[in-house]
Structures are given as structure tokens and as C-alpha cells.
Amino acid sequence: MVDTLRWLDRRRFVQAAAAAPFVAAIGTAACSAAPGVSKRRLPFGAAVRAEQVYGNAAFAAAVDQHCQIIVPEIELNWDKVSPSEGDLNLYQADQLADFATRHGKKMTGHVLVWHLSIPNWAKPGLGQTGGWELVRRYFASVIPRYGTVTDHWDVVNEPLLMGHRQDGLRPSPYLDAFGPSYIARAFHDAHVFAPHAKLSLNEFGTTYDFKEEHDKRYFMLKMLENLKKTGVPIHGVGLQSHLELAKQASFNPTVLAEFVKEIADMGYEIRITELDVRESDYTAPADVRDMRVADAVRRYLDVVTASPALTEISCWGLSDAFSWLGVLPEDIDGKQWPAGQGPGLNRGLPFNSDMQPKPMWNALDAALNV
Fold first, then answer.
1. Burial class, 70, CB count within 10 angstroms (exposed 0-12 / middle 13-18 / buried 19+)
2. Cα(285)–Cα(95) distance, rounded to whole angstroms?
3. Strand partners, 314
4. Would you give the distance in Å from CA 322 to the centre of its chain?
5. What DSSP character marks residue 120?
6. Cβ neighbours of residue 80 under 8 Å, at least 6 residues apart?
7. Roughly how many angstroms between the first and final C-alpha of the chain, as a whole number?
8. Do residues 31 and 274 lie in contact, with contact meaning Cβ atoms separated by under 8 Å?
């Protein structure tokens, strides 16, 4: 179990804060600490695109003010870097690296091996003799280039998918071509090109207490145990924290805390890498929706920040204006809004479309002080 007293202290703190006006309570939480208790500030980051920070001055200012880490949303993906064979397109990745450097930020290397970012031209070649050399050439084109601004790489992304194999691995061109060893192979080669960087495995679907996510947690722990046992140079785990309000009834703090503890007990660092919230009721007033989002974030962070293995928190976006979480047809079919109104944007990021902080940011700001 996690440090029970620390976990209970945080729960009591959050419950007490909820009794006072929300912003005032969170502001007090962020700025005060018990006498003699030393706190550290976790770095905060957000996934962004080059055209967002260079095309929207208010957004760029918010990123500069609040983020210590820049996460390229798509700019380092293999299919973006090399859309056709022999073509190398790093202009937008260079833009983000330059933005990070000029503003004193770090840039996370996201992401190297992901089944959804393989260029179409490369897929047939992976299964041929020497196919891994295509992957190595991609590594060689990006990892050294950003070595001065990037000290952390998401090496393998989303390798697990339940219901297909007994080992829990996701069917993919990588698995077809190289077998399960592609995961270790990717970490070994990333370490060759970035011997001093931290290397992580990044995965989603480990938050809630139902069978599919229970099984994924089990297979993820087994994978991490095996990677550690075989000397693979992996330093940490990214927990993609895509929260969903429709699943909040299945949120079990005890189950999540035990999962986090087992990762930490293996010696791995833990990063919250893609925090956002998908809403489920778009008919409620905006302030009610924002409080629901913030409450889900507080409950989740209350568990994970109790672990001393946590090293950073990043959101998958910063402002609702650029959220990947669009409102789905099933979210609006048959629903009623006042005349002239509608669901608007999904409100699951810390800043609204005008770049103003919402209750989710207050919850994050408090949690970053651990």
C-alpha cells in the first residue's frame, strides 16, 4: 500500500478545502504548508503543436507562463518526420525545440515507437530482412538532433491491448515484424542515441476498476518486471491519464494506489503524461461542468501524487480551444439546450478557450506542490 498516513492527510486536506469557497481553498493549498514540512514543486507540461504556439499569441503566453515542459503533440511522430521514403521533415519539430529553448523549457521526446505513427511507406519494409534498420534510421534522425533540449523520451507508446493475445500485447506492424522483443529493442537503441536521457513506456487505460483495465494493469506490471529483470534501459512509466466522467463510478483510489506503488517498488519513475477529462453531460451550466472536471482531477491526483516516484504532470493540451476531445454525436443527440446555445467545447483542460484558468487548473496547481 502507499504511505497510508500521507494519503489520508491529502484526503482530509481536499475534503476540508471543498467546504470553503473553491478558488480560495485551492489558493491557500497552493501557497501554504505546515511548519517544518518541506515541499517540492513538480514540473508541469502540456502537449502542443507548433502552429498553436506560433499562431496564437495568447496561447503561447499561457504555455510560457505555466509550463516547464513542452510535449510535441505530433511533430516527432515517425509519419510526420518522414511522410515519404527519403523525405525528412523536421521544420515544425525544430520550431517547438526553438520555442522551448528560447523560453527556458524542456521538450519531451514524444513519441518514438507507436503503432499509429508508422509511415505507410515503411510498413512493408519492417517485415523484410533488415527491417529494424528503418526504425534505427528514424531514431538517428530525431534523438541526437534534440539532445540539448530533450532529456526524456517516450520510447514505446501503447503496446498493450486486451482481448487479443495471452501476453496482452497489442497486435501491430511492430509485433508482426519483430515479435515481443521489439519493445526491449527500441529501448536499447534509444539508449544508444541518448545515453544520458530518461526513457519511458507510455500507456493508457490503467485508471479505472473494471476488468479490461484490471487486466491491462496486470500485464503492464508483468512487462515492467520482465524489462527490469532483463536489464532493459527503461527508467520510467508514463501514465496516460485520460479521465472520463462517465467512468467515475469505477474509480477506486485503493486499486490505483496499489498499482502506482507496485510500479514505484520496481524502481521506476512515474509521470502523469496526458491528463485530460472527457465530459459526459454537456447540458449542465459551464460552472457545474468545470467543477465536475476539477473534482475528477483532484481525486485522481490525490492518489498518484502521494507516490514519491512521481516526477512530473503533463496535460494533453492546455486550453479547451485546442482539445482533441471533441463533442461526439451521441453527446448531443436528443439533448436540449436554451435557445441559441449548445454544448460548446469539451471543458476537460485547465484553461478555457480564452486562456483563462478554470477550477481544473486550481486543482492541478495545488497538486503540483508535493
1. buried
2. 38
3. 45
4. 16
5. T
6. 74, 89, 92, 93, 117
7. 18
8. no
Round to whole Å and give the CA distance between 361 and 30.
11
Q: What is the pLDDT of residue 35?
A: 53
B/e letters for 212-230, b = 16+ CB within 10 Å, e = fewer, are: ebeebbebbbebbeebeee
Amino acid 338 reads P
C-alpha–C-alpha distance, residues 260 and 254, integer Å:
10
Q: Which domains does the chain have, with CATH numbers?
A: 4-28+42-324+341-367 (3.20.20.80)
Contact present, 109 and 153 (Cβ < 8 Å) = yes
Residue 54, helix vs strand vs coil? helix
- Shortest CA distance to 77 belongs to which of 46, 49, 44, 52? 49
* Secondary structure (DSSP) of 327-359: PPHHHHTT----TT----S---SSB-TTS-B-H
DSSP classification of residue 245:
G
C-alpha–C-alpha distance, residues 225 and 208, integer Å: 22
Q: What is the distance between the alpha carbons of residues 336 and 183, in angstroms, rounded to a whole number? A: 48
Write down the pLDDT at residue 30. 39
Q: Find residue 41's DSSP bridge partners.
A: 369
Q: What is the pLDDT of residue 19?
A: 38
Indicate the angle between helix axes 182-193 and 132-142, nearest 10 degrees.
30
What was the pLDDT predicted at 37? 54
Q: Give the SS3 label for residue 159.
A: coil
What letter represents residue 134's amino acid? L
Q: How many residues does the chain have?
A: 370
Instruction: Tally Cβ neighbours within 10 Å of residue 13.
Output: 14
Contact 69, 44 (CB under 8 A): yes
- Measured in degrees and rounded to the nearest 5, phi and psi for residue 303 equal -80, -55
What is the C-alpha to C-alpha distance for residues 2 and 255, in angstroms, rounded to an integer? Answer: 11
- Alpha-carbon distance 251 to 243, whole Å? 10
d(CA 196, CA 182): 21
Low-confidence ranges of the chain (pLDDT < 70): 1-38
